[in-house]
Structure prediction request, 282 residues.
Amino acid sequence: MTQSVPDIEATGRKGQRYAIRQKLWKEGAITSVVHIYANCLVTGRCKTDIDIKITMKKVVLITGASGNLGKAAVERFIAEGYHIVATVTPGKSLNFAAEQVEEVEVNLTNEVMVQDVIRRVLEKHSAIHAALLLAGGYASGNVHSTDGDTLKKMWSSNFETAYYITRPLFEHMLSQNGGRIVFVGARPALQPADGKKSLAYALSKSLLFNLAEILNAEGAEKNVVTAVIVPSTIDTPQNRAAMPKADFSRWVKPEDIANVLAFAVSSDGILREPVFKVYGKT
Prediction:
């Protein structure tokens, strides 16, 4: 019997229920053989040592799964054997089989809605082992052209969408003594020469580096690690259309970033405060 939820129930004719709850924190899918002492099940006869063999997958939550990087991440983590919970904008859907990807509708800028979604996911799965927070947006403009509305838009797109998910997830991961969270930073947030051309974007992304440092300070004793990946220009159809004269071979591919995401999540406590610069040849 294969399932992603680490809860098994056996119910007898007379309503006896035997529940086994298994907390998971091991890399990859694991198999557990559970011996249940059960009296008077279906036939009313007493049985002992009923073996139930279950394979349980680790659960990863992915935001921004409909984007180019998100799709590459979903495909990579399917290959890694994870059960994937992907957030989608209300009214939209992903092109993945339901048995591979579980979709949940949510407006990531609505804190109340986000908290409710996380609560429902945890009620169903009991544990979320990793979160790839890939949702975000971009706006160009220097200090002369960037107004307050643009600042607020980038704050909402890049910081609120990560923070509202992180708050309940971080508490959950502390309670289960393990978890991995990954933010997507940006090179303009690290290099002022680049940031001056996209001020609001750079400022909003810089907050994610600060947040990761604070979370790592608190999560260090509980095996909860928050990483930041910093891609350069990603090789996507949209970027190729916007910069047709660029040398695409120098850009980083979504699949390469997905490989880094898989490494960041799989590291068994050996990394502290990790920042991965995925710049390709640029």
